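Subject: Large ribosomal subunit protein uL22c

B.,
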Amino acid sequence: MIKDSSSDKGKEVKILAQHICSMSLFKAQRVIDQIRGRSFDETLMILELMPYQASYPILKLVYSAAANASHNMGLNETDSFISEAKVNRSTFVKKLRLRARGHSYPIKRPTCHITIVLKEKSKLFLDKSKI
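Prediction pasted inline below.
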């Protein structure tokens, strides 16, 4: 989903990944807290070097958001930063593991929703950072 906010004098791209299997809310939250508010290049470097299994789906999501921003909105990837990143709890995937004597054991795998918003740095912010 792409949103153009004229009040902030910058464009932003919002991407949402729903029902991310193989990771719980807390595993994803640990990675998301490290990248919130950082630039795009710094985020890629952090996610590629993190030892957590949850960093790979988030890395793919950040790449997808940057590709959407450059293709649909014409934004430069190097001038963007992650303005908002959040993780919400989703449903549980329920399975049954068979046990002895015809019994079964329930397995509940948690899933999560991940939202990442890329925003373009304003010209004023870029000029201050070069000083």
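The mean pLDDT is 86.

T.
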